[in-house]
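FAQ: What does the model actually see?

It sees only this:
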Amino acid sequence: MTTYTVEFTIIVDHPEKRCETLPKVFAGTFINTSSSHSNQGAALKAYREIIEGEWDFGSEYVSRVRVIAKTATASPRVVRGWRLRGRLDKTTASVIV
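And it is asked to produce this:
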């Protein structure tokens, strides 16, 4: 069985806006995390949402994302390579770097 993992890096640029239930961090903190999906379509949907800024918040944004496929019998396979991005300002549709 193949599982698809969306790996991404979050940059916290406004820690004062973070939810109080999350750990306190400094501005500029990088957080590496991932989400698992049972099929490639769901993983690619999450990948597109991240690129379009739908997973960004006022306190943090996703700076890079990729999709890999994992099986129990083979090495992980890259489905979509690392895609770098800056914070997307949705009101003006410009990228803030």
